[in-house]
Write a structure and sequence with these properties.
By secondary structure, the protein is α+β, with helices and mostly antiparallel strands. It is built from 28 helices and 31 strands.
Length: about 800
């Protein structure tokens, strides 16, 4: 029986159920497939339908199975990438450096906590800023140039120091590394900043010590850390964040080490490889204690690593000081280190990250600065500041045991210094330091207090033992033969000795007492030991001078001096020039006037006289000219000390002040005492000649009080001779005084000099002065001193 010829179109072939239904309905096994033109293109049979159905069911099952596997794979990948993201984010947030990313328009994309701490902004406030908002205007141009080169691809990164602005507009120095990071999706700039303000301060401090102590500092503060070179480029793709984290860890200047939860190493960045001495490949999988050896810098004992502490406590560790890293090759590095746990989203610890940096050079610099701050660079002894600290400690325990303080001042040291120069003086000080150190005990303290002065503290020493030690020191220095350029010098030492008991309550009291005793040793003939006694009249007088020195310093600081003027009257009625001597007075805190004879000895003893002379010069050449009291044809006579005559800086100061003063040089006459001029004859003559060339005149004060007065008149460029007041007042009762005054006047007339009689207190004296023919006279009979400037009212 022939099967009917039944066909289906090829566009209905995809519907297997349709084809199977036709075959069942007509009881046939074959079904022809035709196209739109009814041409037979294929044949479908019943077995093919069953096979296709089975294949389709297998395909559907396979798809379902693959979808389930893909879902499980995605979940595993997301979990793994999440852990990597947490690890990177923790390192990013806990980094010791400030890290930020900015786009090419200068907007902040992300900042870490340290970045916000550096600039003082909250995170949201920082993200609203532009990069140039934080840059000091002086560095805008350089920053823009660098950023442009990065954006245009001319450079990949650059590093420099720049001045930045904090939230309160205060400035700070940053060490900045900016890198260009580009991914397949976008690009940005990674900025790593380290606050180096303290390093800048240390560099300036080191330079200040270099200048002050006149020695070279071996090395400057090294660069402490290099920060992140690259950071993440895209924030949305987890895989890109992981990739950027790996690049960043390899680029930062800090060493980074990570372990798993069992303390086995999982990663070393290149800096960690260099410091530890193990490569990343060698270290991975090893227990941390096998590759990381840390020592206490002081005791040299092994210390527990911060990673071990984190694994034990589960808490982040702080930076540990005085820690050394022992490298694989035996090298030692001073390090600062910290560690923190790496946790997943549930808080489960996955491992530990340790960050550490090489601070070897920084520690050396800090130790060097500390030593310089407390020691004398020439002798290596402790300096005055450190000595007074030690003395304060000794004063606190005098009740338990007896301590002794020495104050040493070398005798005739200035002869060596002035004759052979400072190099010879320095060599002598070094020899004396070594010599004194040999005479005292190992436990005692020797210090250089300044110049040629030394201090010694003898611990647990009786007065009798201290006297024996002081005598040993004195004898050793006395016997020292110092030779320089074939010349041998002998020096001595004056020693003040103080027993540190209940009467000595503080460092100032102790030092003043020792200084006073030392001064008395010098006053009694030098090269001897003097013990401080609280009731000693001479020492009390010396301590009184010390108090005067403090009052003088206070008066200088608060401008509590004033000038009085006393006329110097011509004995010739037709004289058209007026002379006034300017007299100095100190004003006490309560307004009382203090005469020069009360404070001048202390000023000379404690080297304050030059400062007082500078005050006088300033007020005469400046204030006097601006006060409105200066008259034409007037000469103002001011007194200068012998110390100022030998002081080169004072001479320069005088000339500079004179050059800027409206007061003409011809209206200034400088009075110097005969004693001061004779003591420094050559220097005084040189000083006077330089100023005389400018138009200033000179008067020799208190003439006749010296032993060979007339022989010095030829050596000094004098215009006036002021005859000592003692001879003037004695003329009414002593004919010898009259003869001396007449002889002085005749000699000065021959030399073309003018004479001035001091202390003309009575009419009788005035008449005798005029009879002799002296040119000028001065004293209370002529006029009393008057306050000079109306701008400075009487206290």
């Amino acid at each position: 029986m022939t099967s009917p010829f039944i066909t289906v179109r090829n566009d209905e072939l995809d519907d297997q159920l349709f084809c199977f239904a036709i075959l069942q309905q007509h009881g046939i096994r074959h079904l022809s497939v035709v196209d739109k033109q009814d041409h037979v293109v294929s044949v479908v049979n019943l077995d093919m339908c069953h096979a296709v159905e089975m294949i389709q069911e297998y395909i559907n099952n396979l798809k379902n199975s693959n979808m389930e596997l893909l879902k499980q794979l995605d979940q595993t990948l997301i979990s793994h990438l999440g852990a990597q993201e947490n690890q990177f984010q923790l390192i990013f947030d806990r980094a010791a450096a400030g890290i930020a990313t900015i786009n090419f328009q200068g907007d902040f994309l992300q900042v870490n906590q340290r970045w916000c701490e550096i600039f003082g902004y909250a995170q949201q406030e920082m993200l609203a800023k532009k990069a140039l908002d934080l840059t000091h205007p002086d560095y805008h141009a350089a920053t823009l140039e660098g950023l442009t080169q990065l954006i245009e691809g001319v450079r990949e990164s650059f590093t420099y120091d720049k001045l930045c602005l904090r939230f309160d507009r205060s400035t700070l120095w940053l060490h900045v590394t900016i890198s260009r990071v580009t991914t397949s999706h976008s690009g940005c700039l990674v900025v790593v900043a380290e606050d180096i303000s303290e390093r800048k301060r240390l560099e300036l401090e080191l330079e200040r010590h270099h200048n002050r102590l006149e020695e070279l500092v071996a090395e400057r503060t090294a660069e402490l850390r290099r920060e992140i070179d690259q950071r993440q480029a895209a924030e949305q793709e987890l895989f890109q964040e992981k990739e950027l984290a790996q690049v960043t860890l390899k680029s930062i200047a800090d060493a980074v080490l990570t372990t798993d939860a069992w303390g086995q190493v999982t990663y070393l960045n290149p800096v960690a490889e260099t410091l530890i001495g193990w490569s990343n490949q060698e270290a991975i999988g090893k227990p941390l204690e096998d590759i990381l050896v840390m020592l206490n810098e002081t005791t040299r004992e092994l210390v527990e690593s911060p990673v071990a502490r984190v694994l034990k406590d589960g808490q982040m560790t702080d930076v540990v000081d005085h820690c050394l890293l022992l490298s694989r090759d035996g090298s030692e590095y001073g390090i600062d280190d910290s560690a923190a746990p790496i946790c997943d989203r549930t808080g489960q610890m996955l491992g530990v990250v340790m960050v550490f940096r090489d601070v070897t050079q920084a520690r050396k610099t800090s130790q060097q600065l500390s030593w310089q701050a407390s020691h004398d660079s020439l002798t290596g002894l402790v300096n005055r500041w450190r000595f007074e600290e030690i003395l304060q400690s000794a004063l606190t325990d005098y009740a338990s045991q007896s301590h002794i303080l020495f104050y040493l001042d070398l005798d005739r040291f200035k002869v060596v210094n002035d004759t052979c120069g400072h190099t010879a003086g320095d060599e002598l000080l070094q020899q004396v330091s070594a010599l004194v150190k040999q005479q005292i005990r190992h436990v005692d303290t020797l210090a250089r207090l300044g110049g040629d002065e030394f201090g010694v503290i003898l611990y647990g020493c009786s007065r009798q033992e201290a006297l024996a030690i002081a005598e040993k020191i004195r004898t050793a220095i006395q016997n020292l033969q110092f030779t320089w350029d074939d010349t041998t010098f002998h020096i001595g030492v004056s020693i003040g000795l103080v027993v540190l008991n209940s009467d000595i309550t503080n460092v100032v009291t102790a030092m003043n007492a020792a200084d006073a005793a030392c001064y008395q040793a010098k006053a009694q003939g030098r090269n001897r030991v003097r013990i401080y006694q609280a009731n000693d009249v001479n020492i009390l007088q010396q301590r009184g001078q010390q108090q005067w020195s403090l009052r003088i310093k206070d008066a200088l600081a608060h401008n509590r001096f004033c000038l009085y003027s006393q006329p110097v009257q011509s004995t010739q009625a037709a004289s058209g020039v007026h002379h006034y001597e300017l007299l100095l007075r100190m004003v006490a805190a309560d307004g009382t006037l203090i005469a020069p004879d009360q404070f001048m000895p202390a000023a000379e003893r404690y080297d304050l006289i030059v400062a007082i002379d500078a005050w006088v010069v300033t007020h005469v050449l400046d204030d006097l000219a601006q006060s409105g009291v200066v008259n034409p044809n007037t000469v103002y006579m001011l007194n200068l000390s012998g110390a100022s005559l030998c002081d080169e800086p004072f001479l320069k100061f005088f000339i500079d002040t004179l050059a800027h003063s409206p007061l003409p040089p011809e209206s200034i006459c400088i009075e110097i005492t005969e004693t001061a001029a004779v003591r420094n004859l050559s220097q005084a003559a040189q000083f006077m000649k330089q100023l005389q060339q400018l138009g200033i005149s000179f008067a020799l004060d208190d003439f006749g009080s010296g032993m060979s007065s007339f022989s010095y008149l030829k050596s000094l460029p004098i215009d006036y001779v002021k005859i000592d007041g003692k001879f003037i007042t004695d003329m009414v009762v002593d004919e010898t005084a009259v003869a001396i005054v007449e002889s002085i006047h005749k000699v000065t007339q021959v030399m073309g000099l003018k004479t001035i009689a001091e202390s003309v207190e009575t009419l009788d004296i005035c008449q005798r002065v005029q009879h002799i023919g002296i040119d000028f006279m001065q004293g209370y009979h002529i006029a009393q001193p008057m306050r000079l400037s109306p701008t400075n009212r009487e206290p």
